[in-house]
Amino acid sequence: KNEEVHMSNCLYCVYIYDEITNLDLGVKLNGCQCYWSFEMPLAEGLVSDCLIVHSKDTFAQIRLLERDMALTQPIKIILQLMVPSKVVLHIWAVPRLGVEIDVVTQVNQYIIFL
Question: Residues in domain Cytochrome oxidase subunit II copper A binding (predicted)?
Fold first, then answer.
């Protein structure tokens, strides 16, 4: 019984260390079949879709990573990314920041400092 108490305390510590309460901004990135949808829960009603740019329109750009709309964020903030997937597995990446998130069909949460 003592081992069960230690195990439950360890699992609690794993999850509590992952929680940050002083977040500056939260963004929900919904991975759909062929596009991403961005939502900002604090800014009511701010939802936008981001579609991939076709290869013929991407001169001097990174193929399959360029989008028709950029998600702009302020710097020097703690940003929470909530990334659920609705249908298939996705990868959300920002190569210049070194951020790559593998998205499975559940809510994934990531905290980054920009």
Answer: 22-114
